[in-house]
Request: fold
Amino acid sequence: MRKWLQDGIDAEDKKVSRQREKIVVAMREYCTAFRSRRRKWMLPLKPRKNIAPC
Reply:
């Protein structure tokens, strides 16, 4: 019984981990693809320390 539960937990953990990695990769690709466009409209703004750059 314990092995069955642990296998289910491990499988769910792997699924969540893969999904998280896909999201991170997509966010990086988006950030890279639109970096120049983002910089054009952000230039007039004063930089803020609390906003994390891509």
Notes: The mean pLDDT is 82.
